[in-house]
Amino acid sequence: MTASTILLLAYAMVTIFFLLRTHEEGEISGAGWDRSRIAGLMACVAWPVVLVVVAAVVFRASRSTRVSA
Questions:
Q1: For residue 37, which phi and psi values (nearest 5 degrees)?
Q2: Would you list the DSSP string of 1-65?
Q3: Contact, 17 vs 47, CB < 8 A?
Q4: Which of 12, 26, 31, 34 is buried most deeply by CB count within 10 Å?
Q5: What pLDDT, on the 0 to 100 scale, is given for residue 66?
């Protein structure tokens, strides 16, 4: 397995876990399928991507501001 395959698998596992938990919470509360519930499910897919992008930006910024001794 390549590193990208492992990262994609980890991303999918985290996404599926949070999708299932969000769906379960909605079912327990008895809420219908409104915009908020659908937005919550879509956020389960989006937040890991945002986390990776922010981490990459911080990493690049820290490398560019590093002062050599």
A1: -70, -40
A2: --HHHHHHHHHHHHHHHHHHHHHHHHHHHT--S-HHHHHHHHHHHHHHHHHHHHHHHHHHHHHHS
A3: no
A4: 26
A5: 64
How far is the C-alpha of 40 from the C-alpha of 23, rounded, in Å?
A: 9
Give per-residue pLDDT as tens, 3-51: 878 888 888 888 889 889 888 888 898 878 888 888 888 888 888 788 8
pLDDT of residue 65: 74
Structural tokens at position 30:
């008895």
The model carries a pTM of 0.59
Side chain identity at residue 33, one-letter code: W
Name the burial class of residue 11, with classes exposed (0-12), middle (13-18) and buried (19+) by CB atoms within 10 angstroms of its CB: middle
